[in-house]
Design brief:
By secondary structure, this protein is mainly β. Helix content is 2%, strand content 48%.
């Protein structure tokens, strides 16, 4: 999920920069600030009719304690605002702390002890409310390790079709640093080792980007959230709405989305709104009565006569008109493979204003642990990927339950962004048959790689299966699919749209088909294709051609899977491995002399690490459409250990073959072994995880036995 509504330093833009001289320390908000809550009201212009809105009130009821030796960060939250909220402190604050008028963030490094009430006034353009709360700053001691501090307080605007380059910078820390990012604009990527954002934007909108930095010298993490505004190629069409109003279960809600510089009539759309709320596509007005509490991830879009812009926002819904129970976190920074997610102060996914709160989560990345009473996240991620994680918090008095769902991302040790990390499914074929609503269809087949060990593989009785293209989703809740290793489901005769699915856990394949369907899509055009298999999420943007067809080569992300594989154990230095893989990469480039490396790992145990750069040769050709085709192979390997018997890859066909001999695989787990395959080609690392099953002694293969 990871939507950028946390660090309001990123939102206030030019107005905040005008105050930078007096708020420099507040701008350098460390990771614990990143875990504060959402929903700042900064919408520009006139709101929807708010006559029936609930009472404008503070959700915040207390402030965390601080010390004089550590960065302090707190956030003041309101609900039911009738317009843009501004905050003012009408009493003295401790030296070193300042209150941001536009965001409600109280930040800085306290220069003195303090134990007094402070008074804060919030103004929503129609009324003012006052907040009196005790703020306690103790003498130096504790405070933990602040980690690296981002020097960036804003990011440059971009424009579709124009090259974008921006350098991330660290103002404090030891280094070396590894950078990560989530929610980058399409076409822009992050180099995890240099911190350079670059590319050519392809889709306009305002993207709130989660940025993280791991400081190896301090063994600690830091993060921030900054917006990137991408303008259309030929206009300045953009959202002026930069946050959403917070609400309450059972209280009527009104808000509106606003844009500027539109060409002609504008229509609006949104996904992820809290249950009970609806959007009027003609006016951009959101209304209704919320029925479920929590923190919600909302994607909004606006379309004028020239194109569509998007933005990622968020909203808090309190459990009732008298409740102040809410998540004190909206997003989490990406983790790094095999790098501890622990830090001091600890990473928290916690709430405030609850009583005897207990926490639980489903869909966490492998290796990550969630503490049931503190909300602390810890552990060491053991697999790269995206994980659809649902957090739940339960308060006893009164009995209130909050949920929060988002994408928990684990990146390779080199960092970067998830869009440049291979997605471990392969679209063999996909077809949209469009025409008259109710008579359309969607079918396809894909291969995937997943952890299929006993107790971890997809369980049809407890796990959900979902597949989507754009806004059209096929959902098969736990208990829907029939079978064990070969699963299937078809809608009853006469029910429309007709849906069928076949899932083979043994072959790692999925087939699906719909008929008499209605699909909101146009071709040619780009659509997000996503597969959710239990807790594992696979997602990539795919370009469908004018006939509605697409495959792995139409994916904007690299696709990398092991189709079949076998391992043979004979004796020390006599073992072997054969892999048949599929790799597509729209930006693949290779020259003789570029890096080639293969690593095999079982959890953190390295089974094989072989650099075979010196063996690589390539033949380059050009297709009629100007596309470069690279055909790789290797010279004869004369080494006597970890020998490359055969390696070949054709970038046009995607087929990659690798045979290895003279290996030592003694540490493989008996019966089932989940292996990470890490292949380096040039400056890219392609990673996937595959479970091998032992049948006869000394022989492993990918089909489930």
């Amino acid at each position: 999920m990871a939507r950028a509504l946390l660090l309001r330093q990123s939102r206030v833009g030019p107005r905040l920069r005008q105050m930078a001289a007096g708020q420099k320390s507040a701008m350098k908000i460390r990771l614990f600030l990143f875990f504060l809550t959402v929903a700042l009201v900064l919408t520009v212009g006139v709101r929807a009719d708010t006559t029936n809105n609930g009472t404008f009130r503070f959700l915040t009821q207390s402030l965390p304690e601080g010390t004089t030796n550590a960065q302090y960060a707190a956030r003041i939250i309101t609900a039911n605002a009738d317009g843009p909220v501004t905050f003012t402190a009408t009493s003295a604050l401790p030296a070193g702390l300042s209150l941001d008028a536009l965001s409600g963030f109280l930040t800085g490094i306290p220069g003195e002890t303090f134990n007094n009430d402070i008074t804060v006034v919030a103004n929503d353009t129609t009324q003012q409310i006052q907040f009196n709360v005790t703020l306690k700053i103790s003498a130096a001691g504790g405070g933990g390790n602040g980690g690296a501090s981002f020097a960036n307080t804003s990011l440059a605007d971009g424009r579709v079709g124009t090259v974008y380059v921006e350098q991330l910078a660290i103002a404090a820390g030891v280094g070396p640093f590894t950078y990560g990012a989530q929610n980058l604009p399409p076409g822009i990527s992050l180099n995890g080792l240099t911190g350079v954002l670059s590319g050519t934007p392809t889709a306009p909108g305002r993207y709130y980007v989660t940025l993280s930095a791991y400081d190896a010298g301090e063994d600690n993490n830091s993060a921030t959230v900054l917006p990137i505004l991408v303008l259309p190629s030929g206009s300045d069409f953009q959202f002026t709405t930069q946050s959403l109003t917070n609400g309450e279960v059972g209280t009527p809600f009104h808000d509106a989305y606003l844009v500027a510089n539109a060409a002609g009539t504008v229509s609006f759309a949104a996904s992820g709104l809290p249950p009970g709320l609806t959007l009027d596509p003609a006016t951009g007005v959101v209304s209704g009565t919320p029925t479920a509490p929590g923190t919600f991830d909302v994607f909004v879009s606006a379309t004028d006569t020239q194109g569509t812009i998007t933005s990622n926002l968020g909203m808090i819904i309190a459990p009732s008109a008298t409740s102040h129970f809410y998540w004190n976190v909206f997003s989490l920074p990406p983790g790094l493979l095999n790098v501890s997610y622990d830090r001091q102060p600890p990473l928290m996914a916690a709430t405030v204003n609850g009583v005897n709160v207990t926490y639980s989560a489903t869909g966490l990345p492998p290796g990550i642990v969630y503490h049931s009473t503190t909300g602390e996240l810890s552990g060491t991620p053991t697999a790269v990927g995206e994980y659809d994680t649902l957090f739940t918090a339960t308060s006893t008095t009164p009995a209130e339950v909050l949920t929060m769902r988002f994408r928990f991302v684990i990146l390779p040790v080199t960092g970067g962004d998830i869009e440049s990390v291979p997605v471990n499914f392969w679209l063999t074929r996909e077809k949209l048959t469009l025409g008259e609503d109710g008579e359309e269809g969607w079918n396809g087949m894909l291969l995937f790689n997943a952890d299929r060990r006993t107790g971890k593989r997809f369980n049809p009785s407890t796990d959900n299966l979902a597949l989507s293209v754009g806004t059209r989703a096929l959902s098969f809740p736990a208990g829907t699919l029939i079978g064990t290793n070969s699963l299937h489901y078809t809608t009853p005769r006469g029910q429309f749209p007709s849906e069928s699915v076949k899932l083979s856990l043994s072959k790692q394949s999925l087939q699906w088909k719909t008929k008499r369907d209605t699909i909101a899509a146009t071709v040619p055009g780009q659509q997000i294709v996503a597969l959710t298999l239990g807790s594992q999420l696979y997602r990539t943007t795919v370009l469908f051609d004018e006939r509605g067809k697409a495959n792995a080569f139409a994916s904007t992300r690299p696709c990398f899977v092991l189709a079949t594989g076998s391992l043979r154990l004979r004796d020390t230095a006599l073992d072997s491995a054969t892999f048949s893989m599929l790799l597509s990469n729209p930006s693949f480039i290779f020259e003789t002399g570029d890096a080639l490396r293969i690593r095999l790992l079982q959890d953190t145990t390295v089974l094989l690490d072989r650099d075979f750069t010196a063996l690589g040769v390539v033949k380059q050709t050009t297709k009629r459409d100007g596309t470069l085709v690279f055909a790789l192979k290797t010279l004869k390997d004369t080494t006597t250990a970890d020998r490359i018997q055969q390696f070949s890859y054709n970038s046009a066909k995607g087929k990659l073959s690798l045979k290895l001999s003279d290996l030592t695989l003694d540490s493989l787990s008996a019966g089932e072994a989940h292996i990470t395959i890490e292949l380096t080609i040039r400056d890219r690392i392609y990673t996937t995880g595959v479970t091998f099953f032992g049948a006869n002694p000394g022989r492993y293969s990918t089909p489930i036995r």
